[in-house]
Amino acid sequence: MNSNIKQPLVLATAGLGLALAGRALYRRMTRLNLAGRTVLITGGSRGLGLVLARQFAAEGANLVLCGRNKDKLLQAGKELFEKGANVSCVTCDVTQPEQVQDMVTQIERHFSSIDVVVNNAGIIQVGPMESMERQDYQETMQTHFYGPLHVIEAVLPGMRKRGAGRIVNISSVGGRISVPHMLPYSASKFALVGYSLGLRSELAKEGIGVVTVCPGMMRTGSPQNAYFKGQHEAEYALFKISDSLPLISMSSERAARQILKACQHNDGFVVLGLHIKLAEKLYALCPGLMADALGVVNRILPAAGPAGSVKKQGSESQSRWSESWLTELTQKAAERNNEL
User: Fold this and answer.
1) Theoretical Cys-Cys bridge with 87: which of 63, 78, 168, 270, CB 3.0 to 4.6 Å?
2) Which candidate, 261, 123, 248, 284, places its Cα nearest to that of 188?
3) Which of 26, 137, 146, 185 is an active site residue?
4) How many other CB atoms are found less than 10 A from the CB of residue 56?
5) In the chain, at which residue ranges do the beta strands (DSSP E only) sit?
């Protein structure tokens, strides 16, 4: 190689190596130590919320789990307590701002501050657009957009006073790629992504970090408690099988590790899963083409069927396909993560 070309290449490589090493050192030095920090997790009684709680507990955090189902909360709290975690459980519906404010006041009175908030509470509705009603859109917006909004508005005064805090908003790849048969879900997750990214820009000057997370399918065991419309048995079987395939979905434990790491390092935007990252980039580059491609996929999905807008939970939509060996990984996750 010509020496006139070789020298600049060597210098460039060395410069890149120093830059990467410097970035790694900076991330290590600014890493948030979670020991003794108070972490509020909404939707923390089961699924991804419970898996996150286990991992935050392993870092020595004080946990507060929030959820609507008191029995599920007590089950989750008992498990964590028996493993040595300092955990509290608060029954709260995040779609109700008065309940959220009462919860935050109670936590701040007990722990003096809330250092980290993970907005994880969510609902899943699956079915063709013909089966969806205005109420379905309202429910998902109340849960995925207004729920985090209520929690953030309640914790911000304390975080601003301290000039510190982390807010982790769990959105979805459905908030970057609009998926057929999940229109209410996608619309609400798109809203959360837009709010969360803008919020990070506005709060950075106050020392408060906002992390937006967009996972793909995760094996949390959630299909059991998702809602299905139209041909609900076929919709549930397809969803549960997809959720269980290793090439399509990732383990909830691996996802939680990446989310916790993003929280500690105040990463602005995180997409989980290599294939999901590639799909998200492609969708951003050519959304029209990707929408047309997904239109082809939609042609093979179940039609509305005679049930129409009747809503059924996954637990009410079982068939030989949804309970077959194809869904074994998701079933085991449901057993581990308090979803049954």
Assistant:
1) 63
2) 123
3) 185
4) 26
5) 38-42, 62-67, 86-91, 116-119, 125-126, 165-170, 208-215, 218-219, 227-228, 250-251, 269-272, 312-313
Place of tokens 């590790």: 257
> What is the DSSP pairing of strand 165-170 with strand 312-313?
unpaired
HEC sequence for 199-258: HHHHHHHHCEEEEEEEECCEECCHHHHCEECCCHHHHHHHHHHHHHCCCCCEEHHHHHHH
Active site residue 185: yes
What pLDDT score was predicted for residue 14?
Answer: 61
- The strand pairing partners of 31, in sequence order, are none
In the numeric block, the tokens 């408060």 are attached to: 208
Q: Which candidate, 260, 94, 65, places its Cα nearest to that of 192?
A: 94
> Three-state DSSP class for 147?
helix
Contact 148, 212 (CB under 8 A): no
Token digits of residue 210: 């906002």
Tokens of residue 196, six digits: 């969360």
What is the pTM (predicted TM-score) of this model? 0.91
What's the CATH number for 34-336? 3.40.50.720
pLDDT, mean over the chain: 93
* Identity of the residue numbered 152: I
Which residues are within 8 A (CB) of 334 and not within 5 positions of it... i.e. 6 or more apart?
A: 221, 222, 223, 224, 340
Return the DSSP state at 85.
-
The tens digit of pLDDT for each residue in 201-226 reads: 999 999 999 999 999 999 999 999 99
- Partnered with residue 118 across adjacent β-strands are 41, 168
Residue 195's contacts (CB-CB under 8 Å, 6 or more residues apart) are 145, 148, 149, 169
Which strands sit side by side in the sheet containing 208-215, from one edge to the other? 86-91, 62-67, 38-42, 116-119, 165-170, 208-215, 269-272
| For the chain, domain boundaries | 1-30, 34-336
Q: Which two tokens stand for residue 213?
A: 């997370």
How far is residue 229's CA from residue 233's CA, in Å, rounded to a whole number? 9
Segment 120-135, tens digit of pLDDT: 999 999 999 999 999 9
